[in-house]
Amino acid sequence: KYEAVIFDLDGVICHTDKYHFAAWKCLADKLGVYFDEQINNRLRGVSRMESLEIVLENFSGKLTEQQKLQYSNQKNEIYCDLLKNMDSSDLSIEVKQTLDQLRRRGYLLAIGSSSKNAGFILKQIGLENYFDAISDGNNITKSKPDPEVFLMAAKFVNKAAEMCLVVEDAKAGIEAARKGGMDCAAIGDAVNCNMADYNLSKFSDILGICE
Ligand code: G6P
Ligand code: MG
What we know:
Mean pLDDT: 97
Number of strands: 6
Low-confidence stretches: none
Bound molecules: 6-O-phosphono-alpha-D-glucopyranose, magnesium ion
Oligomer: single chain
Enzyme class: isomerase
Binding site for Mg(2+): 8, 10, 168-169
Organism: Anaerocolumna jejuensis DSM 15929
Pfam families: HAD_2
């Protein structure tokens, strides 16, 4: 049924949540803004600037666009420093073996991530040059739930939307896939939104869908 699989990166291929959390918490503390894991979970799949707006919901002061840009840059610097802690051990054997198996079965494999750090993260976990295409925060103008990032990924692998399966851990990502006319499989938290075509209890369950 499908010819390509488009994977979200953060929360699907590897886990960067704790680094995002630590970096946003650092910024929030500096601004005196309350921030917790629950707020952090709302940032999944959301672009950096939109994430900042969510973090600032509890901020009483007013910031100029330039200040916002400065703060989002500061968060990113802290985040990138933390990403240096990642290595090939952050890619699970299950994920790697599943990807390899999909490849053997003839599927094209792509990344569809809102992150501008996708390339760096892939490099850290040893998947640089592994995917047939990477569509990320650097080649889009609208982030999830807009379908742009997935439509670009489909275009990069030269497949129609109906031929692509999207794998996502965020509600915004499931919405994006649906808007783009793609079937989607939810993993992790996204299972709870009950909007996906498939719910995965583990990554390797994809092999049951893409036979
Ligand atoms: C992913 C993460 C989000 C993050 C976004 C932008 O979608 O799930 O939590 O805000 O990427 O990441 P970036 O690395 O560009 O700041
Ligand atoms: Mg994600």
